[in-house]
């Protein structure tokens, strides 16, 4: 049975953000982004972390990566960088969560996808408030197939099941699905050109906006026109 948090209002969170190496990042955007793909991947991750760090309930963000070219920019925006054990996405999340518990054993721990360039702190705060009511919980992505956030309360085993149809996987493991209206920026992950277009429509962070402007000038995204 899911335990209700006694004082969700005062709960602080450590968020773990897994970031791929640039060689593997955003490959489905390669055709649209062209030579800007790596810059876009860094920009999206940094905008995600920067927004998370100014969310009221977030005490710290731990970025897990094996790529020094990503680690530097993430550290500059304020993330604590943790080495990726290179055992897959969920292994990276568990490594970051272990470090989070070492740093602040009394805080809740959440996994947040690194590709949320439109992330709004107020919307993320609403998700964290809702997550504070359950031992483990998650938020589905915009397609309602994957997961953009998974969280556990202090003392609860951190068992993320990201990858593929992770919404069904998290449900099957007993995690409570967070169902909130008005949090599109927390659900809008970016894997494809259509996803990027949707994120741009919501309004992305400054780093992503700058790189997207260069991509749009090249005329690569659907519906875009080449700058004359």
Describe this structure in words.
This protein has a single domain (11-154, 177-218), classed as Spore Coat Polysaccharide Biosynthesis Protein SpsA, Chain A (Alpha-Beta Complex), CATH 3.90.550. It has helices at residues 30-33, 37-53, 68-77, 89-103, 121-131, 166-172, 184-187, 193-202, 206-218, and strands spanning 13-18, 58-65, 80-83, 108-112, 136-140, 147-152, 176-177. The chain is α/β, with parallel strands linked by helices. The chain is globular. The protein has 9 helices and 7 strands; from the N terminus they run E-H-H-E-H-E-H-E-H-E-E-H-E-H-H-H. Strand 5 (136-140) and strand 6 form a beta hairpin. One of its GO terms (molecular function) is GTP binding. This is Phosphoenolpyruvate guanylyltransferase. InterPro entries: CofC (IPR002835), Nucleotide-diphossugar_trans (IPR029044).
Kindly list the characteristics that best describe this protein.
alpha/beta, seven-stranded mixed β-sheet, 9 helices, transferase, GTP-binding, GTP binding
């Amino acid at each position: 049975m899911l335990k209700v948090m006694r004082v969700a209002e005062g709960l602080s969170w450590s968020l773990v953000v897994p970031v791929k190496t640039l060689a593997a990042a955003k490959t489905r955007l390669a055709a649209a982004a062209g030579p800007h793909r790596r810059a876009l991947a860094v920009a999206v991750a940094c905008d995600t972390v920067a927004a998370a760090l100014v969310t009221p309930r977030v005490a710290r963000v731990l970025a897990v990566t094996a790529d020094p070219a990503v680690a530097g920019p993430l550290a500059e925006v304020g993330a604590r960088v943790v080495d990726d054990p290179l055992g897959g996405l969920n292994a990276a999340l568990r490594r970051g969560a272990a470090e989070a518990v070492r740093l602040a054993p009394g805080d809740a721990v959440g996994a947040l996808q690194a590709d949320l360039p439109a992330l709004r702190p107020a919307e993320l705060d609403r998700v964290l408030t809702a997550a504070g009511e359950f031992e483990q919980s998650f938020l589905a992505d915009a397609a309602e197939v994957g997961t953009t956030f998974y969280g556990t309360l202090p003392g609860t085993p951190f068992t993320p099941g990201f990858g593929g149809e992770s919404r069904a996987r998290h449900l099957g493991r007993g995690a409570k699905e967070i169902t909130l209206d008005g949090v599109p920026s927390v659900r809008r992950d970016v894997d494809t050109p259509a996803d990027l277009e949707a994120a741009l429509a919501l309004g992305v962070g400054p780093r992503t906006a700058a790189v997207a402007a260069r991509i749009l000038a090249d005329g690569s995204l659907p519906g875009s026109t080449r700058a004359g």
